[in-house]
């Protein structure tokens, strides 16, 4: 192995260790939150696409956890930001941690991928750009990925919270 390869491998391991540390800090924070709220839930940690991913799941069903998701994921978004702040407080580094509760984001990701694929099909068929409704940054990212997978281009336009995806012809 060359010195550069060793360094790159070490850097990759350091990144994984840092992301695992973020997951641990987030899990501790969320466990405390669940205790305070007197909610049952298990914490699952992973590293996906160069970011820590933490999920709260429940064997008792998702009814109680729905309170932590809120209408259209609003509470989930707020909890994700609070969890990122807790990680930042401990590490001093900005976190891109992704939080899922009761499978809400996984289900949303699937629906958004389908929306992106349908919009791409429409653009391919008509040759005209398609503007989608305003979305959160997470939602836009999923749609951009689906459009790229369909072989088209897309861009975001507008200002938060009215920022939206435009699917463009090839």
Automatic annotation (TrEMBL):
<dbReference type="InterPro" id="IPR039247">
    <property type="entry name" value="KhpB"/>
</dbReference>
<dbReference type="Pfam" id="PF01424">
    <property type="entry name" value="R3H"/>
</dbReference>
<keyword id="KW-0238">DNA-binding</keyword>
<protein>
    <submittedName>
        <fullName>Single-stranded DNA-binding protein</fullName>
    </submittedName>
</protein>
<feature type="domain" description="R3H">
    <location>
        <begin position="106"/>
        <end position="170"/>
    </location>
</feature>
<dbReference type="GO" id="GO:0003677">
    <property type="term" value="F:DNA binding"/>
</dbReference>
<dbReference type="InterPro" id="IPR036867">
    <property type="entry name" value="R3H_dom_sf"/>
</dbReference>
<dbReference type="InterPro" id="IPR001374">
    <property type="entry name" value="R3H_dom"/>
</dbReference>
<dbReference type="InterPro" id="IPR038008">
    <property type="entry name" value="Jag_KH"/>
</dbReference>
<dbReference type="InterPro" id="IPR034079">
    <property type="entry name" value="R3H_KhpB"/>
</dbReference>
<dbReference type="GO" id="GO:0003723">
    <property type="term" value="F:RNA binding"/>
</dbReference>
<dbReference type="InterPro" id="IPR015946">
    <property type="entry name" value="KH_dom-like_a/b"/>
</dbReference>
């Amino acid at each position: 192995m060359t010195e550069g390869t060793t360094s790159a491998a070490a850097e990759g391991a350091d990144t994984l260790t840092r992301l695992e540390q973020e997951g641990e800090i987030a899990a501790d924070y969320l466990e405390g939150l669940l205790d305070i709220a007197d909610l049952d839930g298990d914490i699952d940690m992973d590293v996906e696409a160069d970011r820590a991913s933490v999920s709260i799941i429940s064997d008792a069903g998702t009814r109680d956890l729905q309170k932590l998701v809120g209408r259209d994921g609003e509470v989930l978004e707020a909890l994700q930001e609070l969890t990122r702040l807790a990680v930042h407080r401990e590490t001093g580094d900005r976190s891109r941690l992704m939080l899922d509760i009761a499978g809400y984001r996984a289900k949303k990701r699937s629906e958004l991928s389908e929306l992106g694929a349908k919009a791409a099909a429409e653009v391919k068929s008509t040759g005209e750009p398609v503007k989608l409704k305003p979305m959160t940054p997470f939602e836009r990212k999923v749609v951009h990925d689906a459009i790229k997978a369909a072989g088209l281009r897309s861009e975001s336009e507008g200002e938060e919270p009215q920022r939206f995806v435009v699917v463009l012809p090839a």
